[in-house]
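look at this one:
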Amino acid sequence: MLSLLKQRAESSGNPLWGLGGPHDVPTYDQSPYASSFFKDGGSWESSYGDFFLSWYSAQLIAHGDSLLSLASSTFGDTGVSIYGKIPLMHAWYGTRSRPSELTAGFYNTANRDGYEQVADMFAKNSCKIILPGMDLSDANQPNETHSSPELLLAQTMTTFRNQGVKVSGQNSSEFGVPGGFEQMKKNLSGDNVLDLFSYQRMGAYFFSPEHFPSFTELVRSLNQPKLHLDDLPTEEEEGAESAVMSQESSVSMQAA
């Protein structure tokens, strides 16, 4: 990978930029602001920073494009829907540099939409996108990380939809988060029409008394397009209670 960086730097007329990565970044276990790179006015805003972050992001997008292209060419004529998933790197989203996203390869800052090229990649390969974090709310994030899963989710959903990519959703925590069911209901209602929603994960906790009633309430609160034959009421049940079915929603749900 360093050889590719060297080639890119030489072609840009700045061969010294290809000798390695940024020298003023924090180590893996340090705060993003332990060094100067991610600070306001830091190297990420310099010509070198733009060069490196653009190159780094392009490498990961090229890798993703090759995988989606292979999947599309393999399954394109079979009627199988192809999905790809990206992480919701919401920590530090409230800062200008957004270090979590930059280090993950998403060149997304307060001045730049780093998901447009990713959305183009999905659209080019006729692939749908899975966005996790549908259960995460800003109010339940630690203040010190300047996290905003809600704003990041809104940005990515808008960007992908603008490129004609169908968006599916998923929760992030298998064991629940504070306000998770309320947040999922919010993200699955109103104008937030999803192609599919996957709830994870089925297991002992899923069926526990602490969890299953809340999950059941969530499902019952959503408009379902149709019921499976096994879920239709019997004649006796119809006499006792009418089954109401809505044809308005296009969201389907599955448990992973």
